[in-house]
Design a protein that fits this description.
single chain; 148 residues; Arc Repressor Mutant, subunit A; 3 strands; 72% helix; WH_DNA-bd_sf; DNA-binding transcription factor activity
Length: 148
């Protein structure tokens, strides 16, 4: 296995384990990991966010975000309204239910980060973040180059 294949394999394990932890922790709230990621984005970025901004912020496709937002609306966590300035765009708002669950949901993510970083010195975590950011940027540039 090449070093890059190993990097991809380890990254996949990290993502899969994290998603399973979030799914398990939020099962009682009837939330999946994609739904929780959207809620975390809204908790961080505030209400009245364009659905397209969620696509960019969560880095998931438009159809996937549309399905996730629809599911969150049905579950009572968010509402979606047409933008007053652009009738083609939707603005997404947290409901009272989502606000009541914010502390619990954010704690699950904080606990996940603490578990993931256990035994790793802070400087190594920063180095890890920078390396992974560079890998993500490199792959994004490569993707753009081959698709354009």
């Amino acid at each position: 296995m090449t070093r890059f294949q190993l990097l991809v394999s380890i990254s996949s394990r990290i993502i899969q384990a994290g998603q399973l932890c979030v799914i398990n922790a939020l099962r009682e709230k009837n939330l999946g990991s994609a739904e929780a990621n959207v809620l975390m984005f809204l908790y961080s970025n505030g209400d009245g966010v364009k659905q397209d901004d969620i696509v960019s912020g969560v880095d998931v496709s438009k159809p996937a975000i549309s399905r996730t937002v629809t599911s969150l609306v049905k579950k009572g966590y968010i509402t979606r309204k047409h933008s007053p300035t652009d009738k083609r765009a939707y603005l997404v708002y947290l409901t009272e239910k989502a606000r009541r669950e914010e502390e619990h949901i954010q704690k699950q993510y904080a606990d996940l980060v603490i578990a993931a970083a256990a035994g790793i010195p802070e400087d190594k975590i920063e180095e890890f973040i920078e390396i992974f950011r560079q890998v993500a940027d490199n792959l994004e540039e490569h993707r753009k180059a081959i698709l354009e």
